[in-house]
Amino acid sequence: MKIYIETYGCQMNEYDSEIVRAVIAAADMESTSDIHAADVILLNTCAVREHAARRVIARIHEIHHLRRDAPALIGVLGCMATNLKKNLPKRKKLPIDFVAGPDAYRRLPELIRAATTSDEVPYDIELSDYETYADVYPRREGGINAWLAVMRGCNNFCSYCVVPYSRGRERSRSPQSVVAETQRLVAEGFRQVTLLGQNVNSYRHEDVDFAELLRRVSEVPGVLRVRFISPHPKDFPLHLLKVMAGHPTICKHVHLPLQAGNDRILKLMRRTYSKKHYLDLVEQMRSIIPGLALSTDIIVGFPGESDAEFEDTVDVVQRVRFDSAFIFKYSERPGTLAARKYPDDVPEAVKTERIVRLNEMQRQISTEIFSAQIGAVQDILVERQGTKKSAQQSQGRNDANIMVILNSATQVPGTMVRARIHDATAHVLKGKALDD
Ligand code: SAH
Ligand code: SF4
Questions:
Q1: Minimum mean pLDDT among 217-231, 358-372, 403-417: which range?
Q2: What spacing in Å lies between the alpha carbon of 54 and ligand 1's midpoint?
Q3: Can you give the CATH number for the domain in which 402 is found?
Q4: 105 CB-contact burial (10 Å; exposed 0-12 / middle 13-18 / buried 19+)
């Protein structure tokens, strides 16, 4: 049996696909990267915005068409799976053969076998309070960075968000299992580990909190860089900031989702902080971790967001000056509190206007921040020799996770090189290794 897997959405899904590959291999099924050769095609899906969900549906039809002469089994995994049960009777409309939710991957071989023999659509979308896959060693595709999920699920129920419904409650795996996996990663040649969680800094296992976990991972010999995503602004105690400041392997970069800058909207979103809290937190972070890079997520056009309320978001973007920002139009998700209570009443044209304006503003800020780095010497963790544009370059990232193009191909992936930055755009830096 040959299995092909396609992954949509966030880094957690990329990691989950690696878990799935491990489960499949343990069941003596083979992975293939050739969709035409596959007996089973898995789509690991995202439900966070309607656009992502629609893309997957279109892709299912496309695959069905592509393989019409030699049909393969099509399975839906991940965040859309949880919602699909309602749609199963409409199978003729959606040609899928089985469904597995984010906590059902151990049962995947069984579901695949059941799908080959049954006319029904086997499914397991049960969400677990305990499943962390801590004992499954993911089949990673190589490279320098390894994803490592330390907690799963979310208890926050931000009013717009489907994640607590599609991924269930928060649960953390033991720090011992995280450290052991990090040691194994390093032995295999990975140099950076990115700790993942829907709400990574609310990690807690017995008396070990996120700060302590981060400290232990950062001290594993051979780890050059440790990152984490996505944290929530509510879980940044002082001692976490001190651990970040005090450990050179922990990157001085925080992705700090803002979502909105207006207090009324933040309250409707159930984000649990105000504009002032957020700005104070940024100030505290920057005073404890000098040179800290910040990135963020923003939603424009939440139900009822007025022009004046949107200006509060603009104000935060101008004051904080994020290194980068992911900006989304509000997308109503069935079953969420916002979908039940607040009509999606901001016109599409207004959402577009707001996203265009913020993106333009952010592009300018990023360009200014990156241009100011011209002349600076930075540590670049090399990821590969050769770039899309030229075999004579190499490519890596700085501590802030910004891509840096180096103007020679002699740098070895996995090594840290010191380079002087000589050029910048809104998205990449260019540099030259000091010893080149
Ligand atoms: N757990 C993470 C990521 C959640 S999803 C966190 O809390 O930050 C990633 C991003 O998608 C969110 O930060 C938010 O900006 C965006 N998002 C989530 N639900 C959305 C929705 N209904 N419409 C538009 N954007 C949404
Ligand atoms: Fe969604 Fe909020 Fe949980 Fe993030 S913290 S996953 S935005 S509910």
A1: 403-417
A2: 17
A3: 2.40.50
A4: buried
Cα–Cα–Cα angle for 16, 116, 83, nearest 5°?
A: 45
Distance CA 160, CA 42 (A): 28
Beta-carbon count within 10 A of 86 CB: 8
Cα(317)–Cα(319) distance, rounded to whole angstroms? 6
Token pair for 321: 């000056």
Q: Does residue 14 form part of some domain?
A: yes
- Give the contacts of 56 (CB within 8 A, at least 6 positions apart): 8, 43, 45, 46, 76, 80
Of the candidates 357, 372, 387, which is a domain's last residue? Answer: 372
**CA–CA gap between residue 329 and residue 302 (Å, rounded):** 8
What range does the domain containing 165 cover? 142-251
**In angstroms, how far apart are the furthest CA atoms of the chain?**
65
CA-CA distance, 132 to 184, in Å (whole number)? Answer: 18
351 Cα: distance to centroid of ligand 1 (angstroms): 16
Best residue among 13, 14, 48 to mutate for probing ligand 1, ranked by most atoms within 8 Å of CB:
48
Ligand 1 pocket residue status of 198, Cβ below 6 Å = yes
Q: Which pLDDT does position 90 carry in this prediction? A: 59
Q: What is the mean pLDDT of residues 256-284?
A: 98
Q: Answer yes or no: is pLDDT of 14 > 60.
A: yes
Q: Is the pLDDT of residue 92 over 70?
A: no
Asked if residue 103 and residue 12 are part of one domain, the reply reads yes
Q: Are 145 and 103 in contact (CB under 8 A)?
A: no
Q: Where is the domain boundary, 251, 276, 305? A: 251
Whether residue 202 contacts residue 150, with contact meaning beta carbons closer than 8 Å, is answered with no
Backbone angles phi, psi at 151, to 5 degrees: -145, 160
What pLDDT does 87 receive?
64
CB 134 within 8 A of CB 123: no
Q: How many helices (H) and strands (E) does the chain have?
A: 13, 21
